Backbone:
């Protein structure tokens, strides 16, 4: 059910129309617009519509639309409505008004409307709008009228009618259009050629083929495009032989490359068993543009049975073409294709190597793992990314086992690191023990990589083990990494108020100050609100390191719960680092909450203004303000317009707030 | 840091190379290695020569994104508004540090250059089909904005043309190249929430005054810098007023399709991706819309569509209905997954930790939408958002607009793309063009 302006408004409008009608009748000033209008309401609407101009009383358009919609599903009402609208077209109404009426006749108009529309067809100001409607009304009679009008018209009107005949695929228009296609007026010829392409009858195709042979320059290009359109339509009607003939004509003609390419695609698609030979001929031919087209049709032409011919061609091609062929080959899971891609990894051209890596991600298997690991370890930049992506996305069975086997036997530290990363990216769960081993032994960078991968592989029952690793770790970067790992895994515990339990338990067993600091930091990253009292206690601890860890934990808290504490720290701490961390956290936390009104959020932000010293925090605040569009936010943003360090951010914030306020 | 454009373009270079290689076996030996890109930046032969059409809104960010790619060489800009044209030209010239960027008022002149590989199109919806099909027939690859076209029939014609001419197409449905959408769709496609019971797609409501011209509806002569007649192009004639044109054209149904058509190419696109409906459409659709006013901005401000697909999957697409959360939400028998820009949620939450195993369906992977297009141009393989997929996403909007206009349920055959047993509805699948414009088939 369609909803419009609310019903009360509608009733008021209807009543107003009726009252107006009554007044006009009483005053004797009301004269029927047309005897065809049976309903006074519609008559009133049409009366008012008669003088409509764009930018005037647009409300009348809604009234007309409502009326038509209400009556169109009732046969009698619809017929009466259509008759009234048709009669309106013969009135002295403005063109804009007739246009609006034609919009409705476009859907409800029948053969009844044809005569009135026909009278509009040859007038400059109404021809287009009559066409819009006639185009939609089915029937041979309409075709005849349009064709007659086209023959009698000139200039823009004729061009429009040609377009409509093409759109309706009026076969009877072909002889006239073929004459126009040869006319000296280039615009008329172009329109006629396009229409013939749309009609796409055998007669049109034959005529266009003749024109192709005799034309030059732009007309030939237009004819080629029309013929290709014909071929597509003929194919849709299973007339493939006629389409093939057209393609052959195009390929053999001096037409633009794009048309030859299209004809080649069509030829291959229709060639059946011989399409393979056609494609191979093009691929070997050395024409770069046709080569690209042939690449596009490879999946439709080659199967696993004949793909070896493409593999043989691969190394003989220029680098650019090798890239394209490797992409096409990557759709064939075939041993020879895989071998071809592996060989391409030795290419001197980086684009070819990258294409080969991408192909291997689709066609590689367990035996490809070591090759990809080697590439990931030894290359840099885009090539390294391609190698890693392929390794992580390699989809064949046995790949995970191959990764773990390689990790057990690999001697090179760089390759070990790539394998450790792959265990995490592929989430190889049986690799967990190996990750724990690597997280505690050997190369520091590998330890960090193993810790990162544990974030995806470890589960909550591994937390005690993860905590042990954390507390045994002494190097700073590794501790930071392990802290994050513990927090990520703890975050998987379903109940939010249980996520910090194990860490709290560990704290109760740990006396060592650095270890306790790490555990506080972990609590901050986890964000379990049941552990907040513990952190508040730690803030009051006499040990500076514990205090520092508590401040940092609160500043890293993922939710807004410790907002009051961090503001207090920002306001009272003597430690400049703590001031900055807490201030940043406060602004972030204000942004995390939901408020009943934007003013509430701005009020909270106002509380930290005295502490704002550095441009970084001011920018963070300005970035947040547009989320709370209100006068107070605008004033706050404007107060920063005089500060050179943040003037750009202030201007953006002011503009966004204004925008949202106006909207 | 800019790049130095070269006079020679990729096509010319490749052709010369082919000719030279054919005529002189020793040719490669006398070419310095740097020409082939060993020094870092791609050589001219590898660059994709591009131009852009339409710089009133999305054309600028699209162009910047492409300009920043080493393999792109931007040579020209085209806009029928001289102010937009100058702004776009300045950006290109500043980027390259020269004054070489050519300008065009009319796309037909641009297409006749003969040296372009690809074109970026960001123009009002009513121009999408004509400009794009003309580009396809010129042999260009295309990066273009959504919705694909202004009517369903235009969409079919464009898809046919792209296929027939073998062109590479990327739609600006960039959410496909963002991690959370990809992850969400992949989880749904692999059955993590079981059989899909309902899909909810929440889109924006209202009319957003992008250009600050809201209410400026006094008809008058267009400004001298704008070729208004060409801007109108195939759309029905309407006199000029500021509220009708730049950026805000989308709120008038002769030029755009309101919020519904503006966003259907994003969130419905993602919904289709997850469902595996990239190459089909709904079999029935009904809906309602609210129109707060007539006049220049006449697109529905609130709307609610209810669609059903051939396998029975229902989908709601709504704007301005609080119960339908903004973004895409698939609801299945084992839970739900919701995603939006910057958001990814699920119930049960552990669903989001699920990995896709080696034997499961992996959706096309891209983390850089423009790079994905350029890779497609080079490899001649389809992009992540090709024409047909964009057409199917847009078709939900086109059919929805028709259902709203008719006020009744319509039954659709996604194969033949016709509305069943409803000739009146079928009339609305195509738009008529103002003389002398004609849609190339």
Residues:
């Amino acid at each position: 059910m369609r909803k419009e302006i609310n019903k009360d408004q509608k009733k008021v409008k209807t009543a107003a129309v009726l009252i107006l009608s009554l007044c006009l009748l009483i005053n004797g000033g009301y004269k029927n617009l047309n005897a065809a209008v049976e309903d006074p309401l519609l008559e009133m609407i049409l009366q008012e519509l008669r003088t409509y101009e764009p930018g005037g009383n647009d409300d009348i358009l809604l009234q007309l639309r409502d009326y038509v919609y209400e009556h169109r599903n009732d046969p009698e009402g619809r017929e009466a409505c259509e008759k009234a609208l048709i009669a309106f077209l013969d009135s002295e109404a403005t063109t804009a008004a007739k246009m609006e009426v034609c919009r409705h006749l476009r859907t409800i108009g029948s053969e009844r409307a044809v005569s009135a529309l026909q009278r509009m067809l040859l007038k400059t100001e109404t021809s287009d709008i009559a066409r819009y409607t006639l185009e939609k009304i089915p029937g041979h009679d309409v075709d005849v009228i349009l064709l007659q009008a086209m023959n009698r018209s000139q200039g823009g009107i004729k061009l429009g009618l040609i377009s409509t005949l093409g759109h309706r695929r009026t076969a009877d228009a072909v002889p006239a259009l073929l004459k126009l296609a040869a006319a000296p007026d280039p615009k008329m010829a172009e329109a006629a050629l396009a229409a013939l392409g749309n009609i796409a009858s055998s007669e049109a195709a034959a005529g266009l083929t003749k024109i192709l042979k005799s034309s030059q320059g732009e007309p030939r290009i237009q004819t080629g495009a029309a013929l290709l359109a014909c071929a597509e339509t003929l194919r849709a009607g299973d007339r493939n032989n006629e389409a093939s003939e057209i393609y052959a004509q195009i390929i053999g003609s001096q037409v633009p490359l794009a048309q030859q390419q299209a004809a080649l695609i069509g030829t291959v698609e229709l060639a059946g068993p011989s399409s393979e030979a056609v494609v191979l001929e093009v691929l070997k031919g050395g024409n770069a543009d046709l080569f690209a087209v042939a690449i596009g049709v490879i999946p439709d032409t080659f199967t696993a049975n004949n793909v070896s011919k493409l593999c043989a061609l691969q190394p003989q091609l220029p680098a650019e073409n090798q890239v394209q062929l490797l992409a096409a080959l990557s759709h064939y899971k075939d041993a020879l294709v895989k071998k071809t891609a592996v060989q391409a990894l030795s290419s001197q051209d980086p684009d070819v190597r990258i294409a080969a890596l991408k192909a291997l991600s689709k066609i590689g298997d367990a035996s490809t793992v070591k090759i990809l690991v080697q590439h990931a370890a030894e290359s840099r930049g885009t090539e390294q990314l391609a190698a890693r992506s392929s390794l992580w996305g390699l989809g064949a069975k046995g790949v995970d086992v191959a990764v773990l086997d390689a990790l057990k036997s690999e001697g090179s530290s760089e390759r070990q690191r790539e394998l450790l990363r792959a265990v995490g990216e592929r989430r190889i769960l049986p690799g967990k023990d190996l990750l724990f081993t690597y997280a505690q032994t050997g190369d520091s960078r590998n330890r960090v990589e193993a810790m990162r991968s544990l974030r995806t592989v470890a589960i909550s029952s591994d937390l005690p083990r993860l905590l042990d690793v954390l507390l045994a770790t002494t190097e700073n970067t590794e501790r930071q990494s392990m802290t994050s790992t513990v927090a990520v895994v703890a975050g998987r515990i379903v109940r939010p108020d249980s996520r910090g339990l194990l860490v709290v338990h560990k704290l109760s067993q740990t006396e060592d100050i650095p270890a306790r600091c790490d555990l506080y930091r972990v609590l901050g990253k986890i964000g379990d609100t049941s552990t907040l009292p513990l952190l508040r206690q730690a803030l009051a601890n006499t040990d500076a390191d514990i205090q520092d860890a508590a401040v940092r934990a609160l500043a890293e808290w993922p939710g807004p719960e410790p907002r009051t504490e961090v503001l207090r720290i920002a306001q009272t701490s003597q430690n400049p680092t703590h001031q900055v961390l807490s201030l940043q956290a406060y602004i972030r936390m204000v942004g995390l909450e939901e408020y009943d009104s934007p003013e509430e959020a701005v009020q909270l932000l106002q509380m930290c203004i005295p502490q704002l010293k550095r441009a970084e925090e001011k920018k963070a605040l300005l970035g947040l303000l547009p989320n709370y569009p209100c006068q107070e936010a605008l004033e706050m943003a404007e107060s920063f317009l005089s500060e050179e360090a943040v003037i750009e951010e202030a201007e953006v914030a002011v503009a966004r707030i204004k925008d949202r306020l106006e909207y | 840091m800019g790049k130095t454009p070269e006079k020679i373009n990729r096509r010319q270079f490749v052709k010369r190379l082919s000719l030279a290689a054919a005529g002189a076996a020793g040719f490669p030996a006398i070419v310095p290695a740097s020409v082939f890109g060993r020094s870092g930046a791609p050589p001219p032969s590898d660059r994709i020569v591009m131009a852009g059409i339409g710089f009133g809104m999305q054309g600028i960010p699209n162009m910047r994104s492409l300009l920043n790619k080493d393999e792109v060489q931007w040579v020209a800009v085209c806009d029928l508004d001289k102010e937009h044209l100058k702004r776009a030209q300045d950006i290109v010239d500043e980027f390259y540090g020269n004054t070489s960027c050519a300008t065009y008022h009319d796309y037909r002149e641009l297409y006749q250059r003969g040296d372009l590989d690809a074109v970026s199109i960001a123009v009002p919806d009513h121009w999408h089909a004509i400009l794009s099909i003309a580009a396809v027939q010129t042999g260009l690859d295309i990066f273009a904005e959504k919705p694909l076209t202004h009517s369903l029939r235009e969409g079919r014609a464009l898809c046919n043309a792209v296929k027939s001419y073998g062109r590479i197409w990327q739609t600006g449905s960039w959410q496909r190249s963002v991690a959370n959408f990809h992850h969400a769709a992949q989880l749904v496609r692999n059955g993590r929430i079981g059989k899909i019971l309902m899909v909810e797609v929440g889109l924006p409501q209202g009319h957003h005054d992008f250009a600050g011209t809201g209410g400026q509806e006094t008809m008058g002569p267009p400004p001298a810098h704008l070729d208004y007649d060409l801007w109108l192009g195939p759309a029905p004639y309407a006199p000029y007023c500021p509220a009708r044109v730049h950026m805000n054209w989308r709120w008038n149904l002769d030029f755009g399709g309101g919020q519904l058509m503006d966003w259907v190419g994003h969130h419905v696109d993602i919904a289709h991706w997850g469902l595996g409906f990239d190459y089909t459409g709904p079999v029935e659709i009904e809906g309602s819309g609210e129109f707060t006013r007539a006049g220049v901005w006449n697109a529905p401000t609130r709307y609610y569509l209810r669609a059903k697909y051939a396998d029975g999957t229902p989908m709601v697409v709504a704007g301005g209905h609080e119960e339908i959360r903004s973004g895409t939400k698939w609801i299945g028998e084992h839970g739900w997954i919701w995603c939006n820009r910057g958001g990814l949620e699920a119930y049960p939450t552990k669903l989001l930790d699920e990995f896709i195993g080696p034997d499961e369906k992996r959706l096309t992977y891209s983390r850089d939408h423009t790079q994905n297009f350029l890779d497609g141009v080079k490899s001649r393989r389809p992009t992540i958002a090709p024409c047909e997929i964009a057409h199917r996403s847009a078709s939900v909007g086109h059919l929805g607009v028709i259902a709203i206009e008719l006020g009744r349920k319509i039954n659709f055959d996604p194969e033949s793309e016709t509305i069943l047993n409803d000739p009146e509805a079928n009339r609305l699948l195509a738009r008529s063009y103002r003389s002398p414009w004609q849609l190339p088939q």
